[in-house]
Amino acid sequence: MTNEKRPLVRISIGGDTTFVEQVQIKEKRSPQKKSKNRRLPKDPKPKEWLAKELSQLRIADYKPFNFVDGEGVRCSLYVSGCKFACPGCYNKAAQSFSYGFEYTKELEDQIIADLGKDYVQGLTLLGGEPFLNTQVCLQLVDRIRAEYGTTKDIWSWTGYTWDELQLESADKLELLSKIDILVDGRFLEAKKDLTLQFRGSSNQRIIDVQKSLRQNKVVIWEKLSK
Ligand code: SF4
């Protein structure tokens, strides 16, 4: 027991005023803070979220010639809108479907021209959620295949897991069928690991899409190093 005086704080409960030690307030608040940190991303039912209802065909950002969104030099298109609401999301502003700017023919022409450079390996789709913006992504992917065939590879990030995508709408399955590499799954703060190659949490996988579709099981990218 000590005689040390602790600061008192005036509070009001049901109209009555009383004084309590500051430490009592902190103790009462801390469980709330913990429960907020434990919030998990949303889990949609199959076909619950549809691009045709959600997408506003908007883009959060376009970054040509970067080295961080997959293998080699890449052009990255960040679409607007994602409903997974992962705590700790790396691009929270892009969760809004109205964020950013309209996808235009001029932007598409620019992406196609940038991809034409010899040193560019391919396109990366991320966001936001590419699979909730399939109209934009499919239009661009189809044009890349028409102009470059398979000489440019296409990577996409998604909050959906591979298994969830198998139960999804036709547009999502079509986009999946046309890409090369998928980084799947929500970002989970409890599994955060910044040393991982191209992903933020250890539940996420780098999947070779074409091999996985052929073998009807998830096949991990053969160049995975960690
Ligand atoms: S899935 Fe990706 S973009 Fe969507 S909330 Fe989670 S981290 Fe953010």
UniProtKB/TrEMBL annotation:
<keyword id="KW-0479">Metal-binding</keyword>
<feature type="region of interest" description="Disordered">
    <location>
        <begin position="24"/>
        <end position="45"/>
    </location>
</feature>
<keyword id="KW-0949">S-adenosyl-L-methionine</keyword>
<dbReference type="InterPro" id="IPR034457">
    <property type="entry name" value="Organic_radical-activating"/>
</dbReference>
<dbReference type="InterPro" id="IPR012837">
    <property type="entry name" value="NrdG"/>
</dbReference>
<dbReference type="InterPro" id="IPR007197">
    <property type="entry name" value="rSAM"/>
</dbReference>
<dbReference type="InterPro" id="IPR013785">
    <property type="entry name" value="Aldolase_TIM"/>
</dbReference>
<keyword id="KW-0004">4Fe-4S</keyword>
<keyword id="KW-0408">Iron</keyword>
<dbReference type="Pfam" id="PF13353">
    <property type="entry name" value="Fer4_12"/>
</dbReference>
<keyword id="KW-0411">Iron-sulfur</keyword>
<dbReference type="InterPro" id="IPR058240">
    <property type="entry name" value="rSAM_sf"/>
</dbReference>
<protein>
    <submittedName>
        <fullName>Anaerobic ribonucleoside-triphosphate reductase activating protein</fullName>
    </submittedName>
</protein>
